[in-house]
Amino acid sequence: MPEFEYVEPRAYAALADRISREPVIGVDTEFMRETTFVPELCLLQVSAPGDIFCADPLGEERTREELGALLRVLADRCWVVHSGRQDIEVLYLGAGLMPREIFDTQVAAALLGYAPQLGYAALVAELFGVAIAKLHTRADWHRRPLSPELLEYAAEDVEYLLPARELLSERLAALGRLEWAREDSAELLDATLYTPDPETAIERLKGARYLKGAARRIAASIAAWRESEALARNRPRQWILRDAAVLEIAAAAPETPAALARIPSLPPKTARRAGRELLRLVRAAKLARDDYRPPARPDEGHRDRLKALQDRVAAVATRLGIAPEVIASRKELSAALGGERSSRLFRGWRRELIGDELLAMLGSWNLVPGS
Q1: What is the pTM of this model?
Q2: DSSP string across 82-126
Q3: Rounded to whole angstroms, what are the CA distances from 308 to 312, 314, 356, 361, 362?
Q4: Please, what are the domains in the chain?
Q5: Per residue in 65-108, pLDDT tens?
Q6: C-alpha span between 102 and 7 (Å, rounded)
């Protein structure tokens, strides 16, 4: 591995100057989020042709201004990442910034027939015949000083990103799929993927989509409260209130402190701290009105139509030599059966490849609105 440079905050300006000369950089992050809502950036790895940098945002001499200036320079580049959604989330939630452009090597590899969730080490082994030992996946990146072994491990995570982009791009271009990779990578730059939204928090609750009436309204109201609390206190959602407690409160609709205290999944400490607010939310939700209608549970006809869509996608995927879920997941196809038309399946390269054909199938079943 080439030598890497460990960069403390006092050297951020020099690093920003070096990076500003490169339109494309490799990026990876190490972060901790076990005890926080917003992931805490603990190390930032950057590769440029001939250079690897490990920038430490937790050094004693750090300043918010120095880190912000560096991140703004980084955000104005094209990032090469591997499975980069969490790396983008760290930048966006921590600094409100988004890379100008992105190329995700995991996304690109999947379009060449590699496993859709292929890890970085496995990709490096496939492309370059190099074995990377993943020995520190559970490391405490917040602890200082960072050992030389940890820093070397971190540096390896960006060492092959730029060469991988070059090789994957060549192979994709030969198959006419390079724009597909760019398009799918760009999907990761949708800020709504990372923006906490209390109004849609209920969508995180498994099974909540089938609730109706007051139970649905209570669950939605408490989920929204939990999201706001988690963000305000910078604590994980489950630390504020567990999913099971949200659903149990929605089902029981307690009206008194004693009834609330009987909720099995609600810790007594939470009942004492937030009980009054939770009961207020329950009362308000019971009095409210809504027009939400839960989706119909899949019947035999739905399953047969879903199988037909999956078979068609699988046939196209086999012809291309890629996994069917790279084109469309089961969840996306099921949503299409339910009337969803805004997914990636009906835009860009997927629409040209198969989306219009799937729309025709849906229309033949009288499932396309207005057909």
Answers
A1: 0.92
A2: SSTHHHHHHHHHHHS---SEEEEHHHHHHTTTS-TT--HHHHHHH
A3: 6, 10, 15, 9, 10
A4: 5-193 (3.30.420.10), 198-287 (1.10.150.80), 300-364 (1.10.150.80)
A5: 788 999 999 999 999 999 999 999 999 999 999 999 999 999 99
A6: 24
